[in-house]
Amino acid sequence: MTNKPFRPATIAAQAGGAKGAGGAVVPGVEVATTFARNAAYELTGDGSYGRDRNATVAQAEEVLRQLEGAAETRLFGSGMAAAAAVFQALPNGARAVVQAGIYWGVTHWLAGFCAKRAITLDTVDAADPTAIKAALADPADLVWIEVPSNPWIKIADIARVAELAHAAGALLAVDGTAATPVLTQSLALGADISMHSGTKAINGHSDVIAGVLSCRQPELPLWRDICAQRAEAGALLGPMEAWLLMRGMRTLPLRIERMCATAQKVAAAMHAHPFIETVWYPGLSDHPGHELAQKQMCGGAGYLMSVLIKGGADDALGVAGRLQLIHRATSLGGTETLVEHRATVEPQSGIPGNLLRLSIGLEDPEDLIADLDQALRD
Length: 378
Ligand SMILES: *Cc1c(COP(=O)(O)O)cnc(C)c1O
Fold this sequence. Notes:
By secondary structure, the protein is α/β, with parallel strands linked by helices. Helices cover 39% and strands 15% of the residues. The protein has two domains: 8-21 and 31-249, Aspartate Aminotransferase, domain 2 (3-Layer(aba) Sandwich); 252-377, Aspartate Aminotransferase, domain 1 (Alpha-Beta Complex). The strands form two sheets. Strands 1-7-6-5-4-2-3 form a seven-stranded mixed β-sheet, with helices on both faces. The chain has a five-stranded mixed β-sheet with strand order 8-9-12-11-10. Helix 3 (79-88) packs parallel to helix 4 (104-116) and helix 13 (313-322) packs across helix 15. The chain is globular.
């Protein structure tokens, strides 16, 4: 047996070595909320109460820790709870530099939270090297980027942003939900905290809400505060969800590989389609982040793309309405391909009305292309 860390497919397939009692090759679910003490009033197991520690959650965290190449990993009850935990660990009056045009839930929650806590919130196009450099010319406490960003599909240079953030005295947190730790290792690129919504491709079956944070240096005061807050304020993931997450993750690298290959085919077909104005997908050579994505993402350009239909919002909604196979639904990263008209969901954020976001699943690429083609031509 080698001491070298295993590769992602190996870690995932065997759930990072998680086993159950009595030789079971899959773990069970630890449902107990409290643990008995012996006659001398000593604890007999690893924990005393389920909010401090749950064995199933700890097993799922260990799989993610290995996939992330992290020192420590914590699961949360949702991706938003994980993201919020990072900002909640900032002192009042801090300065946060946040990428513009990211996940709507984060953008929306942050505006209210930062106002209440007197946190200066500066938004910047983090994929623009000049803009991010200018934003980090002044000291900051935290930089938050999303790579690839959603639905603009921008690719920020994580290593470069990490350098600039550190020079400004800030920590870098990366929301890598659309990439998963299989495609992008944010911590190895210099990020201090890696965040993912486990709800998306990590679980991958559209049946669990979860979030995860991982850290490179466990002694960081911000990280210690995040861990203490999770246990004390209790933004936990339940053991059933953690178990489902572990089950979903067994096929994560396999799903990502196929989803990326299919997305590449769909993107190429849409790029060549007479009724499509443009396609934003980092796997296409005309994407501004193409070269960077090739360097920063390993094994594919992701499963998320935005297609801009020739015409306006009504035309895009017409196309979405005529799709027969692809579901009209929010979210991403599941086995089923989803389409979303983002301008309907976030009307004030400047998203083009003719934009449809696609999250490519595990269907046959020809069936997906045929469905899009019939919807575009009708
Ligand atoms: C879905 C999502 C989140 C929020 O995760 P939830 O699990 O829905 O709370 C955060 N960031 C990105 C990029 C997402 O796609």
